[in-house]
Amino acid sequence: GAGVSQSPSNKVTEKGKDVELRCDPISGHTALYWYRQSLGQGLEFLIYFQGNSAPDKSGLPSDRFSAERTGGSVSTLTIQRTQQEDSAVYLCASSFYGNTIYFGEGSWLTVV
Amino acid sequence: DAKTTQPPSMDCAEGRAANLPCNHSTISGNEYVYWYRQIHSQGPQYIIHGLKNNETNEMASLIITEDRKSSTLILPHATLRDTAVYYCIVRVDEDSSYKLIFGSGTRLLVRP
User: Fold this and answer.
1) Interchain contact, B96 vs A104, CB within 8 Å
2) What digits encode the pLDDT tens for the residues A31-78?
3) Contact list, A31 vs chain B (CB under 8 Å)
């Protein structure tokens, strides 16, 4: 596709359940980023993938959060044992190496 | 932590120029200044970026001071659709990690 694609666009889940959020970056982009934005708050960096290098996981808030990037393209962000404070919009972005970063429209997660 | 300082809010009249300031006094010589905006919790939209020269594109102009310690984003003829949160970001480049660290941004309100 032309832009960064994320799915699902909306997800409601029960506290304690696991969720998976998917990101399809722009074709050919080498770098992929995940951010989180809680209601009324700024964007919080979570994790960054660049090619085959080890990911920068410095922003992951706890060990319940993990992400994979298969084949250097699609990425999945997994949140285990969800808590209400995990409710947020999760934004994915991609870039070609250090060039301009483009964002998707996000996946809205609500934990009830 | 974000390396930029922006006023929390500004307003301007429709049709007039909007000038959004940003301080980045600790910027390094090889760090770029990026501007993004976010409209009503959509994914952040790239506007413009620069290193040391002034830049202009179809959306905006970016004026960077000679010492690179501050910059101004100019929307030449603001419209109601330009109402958004504007983020000024210095691009971190640590061990080839090109992630963006977002601050609080400036909430711009364009008045009819």
Assistant:
1) no
2) 999 999 998 888 999 999 998 888 999 999 999 999 999 887 999 999
3) 98
